[in-house]
Amino acid sequence: MPIENENPYEPLTAIDDSNNFINQDDTREERPPRFSPETERKLLYKLDTRLLPFLSFMYLFSSLDRSSLGNAVLDNFEEDVGITPDQFNTCVTIFYIGFLIFQIPSNILLKRFTAKKWLPLLMICWGAIACLHAGVKNYYQLLTLRFFLGFFEAGFFPGVIYFLTLFYKKSEMATRIALFWGSTVAAHAFAGVLAYGILQLRGSGGLTGWQWLFLIEGVPTLIVAIIAFYYLPSSPADWTFLNEEERTLAVSRLNEDGEVIDAHVTLGDLDESNKKQAIKALTDWKVWVYMVMFFCGSVPNTSVSNFLPSIVKGMGYDNKLSANLMSAPPYVAAVFVMIIGAYSSDRKKDRAYHAVAGALVCMMGYIILTVSTDRPVLYTGACIAVAGIFVINPIVNAWLTSNIAPDMKKSVATAMAVSANNSAGLVGSNIYRHSDAPRYLRGHKINLCFISIFIILTLVQRGLLSRANRRKQQEKENSRNEELQTLLGNDTRIGDESLDFKYRL
């Protein structure tokens, strides 16, 4: 059971896999704390108000730059560039190919260059490419730019997650990841409102509205990246926003007597000593079920992220500017649902049923979009569908990381799940076709199918994990009390396969 903590900046529950182990005797001597709880609260407050928001702000620009194409298409983009609707879909798709190719290499390079340098460098690269979109003249130029935009954005999210582990304990990461993840949903809402205003500049300075859109969203990305070079610290030990006592605490609370007790392992740490853990992840049925769950839950996510303005336009909001503006409220609803859902999931110590609840909300929205023809009802359905979509991934991510151990196995499993998540973009970017306008029934029905499969898989995964827990417990109960310690001591299984490990449901 998690230890209760009055610290308001600690998550309600931890995702640290050590909390999954049961019936363990802690023989370590209690050590008096070197710093007061009040000092640690102040430290976490500074991290949560000065580091996390800035990283979230950086990620907001990542989401803005990748989603701007979906807003630009409502400003005669296809006609101006001379591409067909099918070519437009291909350009959306190739973003995810670049994303998949560079994600793992970026994670490895991260440790070589350090997050302080690597994250702003990635941001400068994709910001420059975003600006270059304003000068695109034909299909092949756009195809190339979209590929490299995905290529350089690929390493940012996992890079930030690793960077946060330099400042937060494992038991503090769940809430911070949820808050950070919320920035991408907020970015989609902001993108619609921003596009509404920017696209009205069409004709100003001899530029089209979509050219202004790419420039106005791309240039600030470059500016923020330059600021990040100087703002981001290399580690807690050299961050000027912390006083000497806080810097010492920030380092020491992740270490104990020189031994790292809150180490975070990434693919950059893969070597001969932990190669077997990586292989275990590749052959673990749990990981593959999670991967399919991520894929099924992310197809609706990626499709809506790219095509919601077009879907809204098809409802009868014929004014292209209004379609962009009306695409914002569904994302606002999604932010609140995601935060409430993640909070409730932590509070109730449940993952599966909360993920299913989000999927059911999403399903309800798509059913409305499929059967109704009334514009207000259709728009309500879109709001409901989007609200349910974005709560799924944070919960499933927390569920996966809490049920896979040890650390290298968890790192590989997470990379596999993220790859499955991004692969969904290859499908999601192609299910809403121009020929299906204005209802886009085919896309809605395909998303309904994937959401239905997600719900089934989630319940199956929960049942399988529950059965695995019962088998472990039965194996322990079948042993006499005097044999139990011998059984546990001789158990060669490690991590989540250990008899001591209890899967979270």
Brief overview, please?
This protein has 505 residues and is an all-alpha fold. It has helices at 37-72, 77-81, 85-113, 115-132, 139-153, 156-164, 173-198, 209-231, 244-252, 275-283, 285-314, 320-326, 329-348, 352-371, 375-389, 392-403, 407-428, 441-477, 481-489; strands at residues 255-256, 259-260.
Q: Tell me the Rg in angstroms.
A: 24 Å
What does the overall shape look like? globular
Question: Count of DSSP E strands?
Answer: 2
Helix count equals 19
- Cα distance spanning the termini: 14 Å
Proportion of residues in extended strands: under 5%
Whole-number average pLDDT?
83
Poorly predicted tracts of residues:
1-18, 23-33, 256-262
Task: Write a concise keyword list for the protein shown above.
505 residues, mainly alpha, two-stranded antiparallel sheet, 19 helices, globular, disordered N terminus
